[in-house]
Write the structure tokens for this entry.
Amino acid sequence: MNDGDRQASEIDHGKTGRPPLQRRAKITREAILEVSATLFSRTGYAGTSINDILAVSHTTKGAMYFHFSKKESIAAEMLRRWTAVASETIGKAEASGQTADRQILMIYRELARRTENEAITRAGLLLSTDQNLTGARATYEAWTEALTSIVVRAIRSDVLDCTESTSRLADTLCACFVGTVKVAASLDQSHTITKRIDDVLLLWCGTDPVAARMIEGASV
């Protein structure tokens, strides 16, 4: 899932074409992303206009285009950030030495924590299923593909009672995660994402005390 170098070369830095160097410019760029992320999560990409972002962020149009040449560039940066978070989280879980089923728990709990506390990460996840965005589908598929290899290991180790298509199981887990985050965001209850995902994981693992303890201790 590591597309960092290619994606970094494609980042839109607005009029200058270069990353901001001054601290004030960096703060402004992040503020635009934070506001945009909140709006995208609540009203969707298509339902958010540049004027909406300008109004909420109290940013001038000149400052906006200094950092981003178009709205799609803002969304593309969020997709890039989500990819980086997912890749880092999966990498840490795989390096932990834990069993494959526990790695899955670790990954989803950490992604839940990040999407609950980081508006840009949350928006990047939600945008990965937006058909209006170039690169969104590839972002989502890269995530499910990375999870598939772990799911396959879990099945082959007999820790998952599953004989169905392994890719479908990984996709279903990812789809459940997206749906859970989307519901929480649309209800303006992003602070409940971790608890909601824990409930999903308990349903997946079973509600016995052992499964509960596995979830409670699973972190990266």
In short: The chain has a mean pLDDT of 85. The longest helix spans residues 71-94.
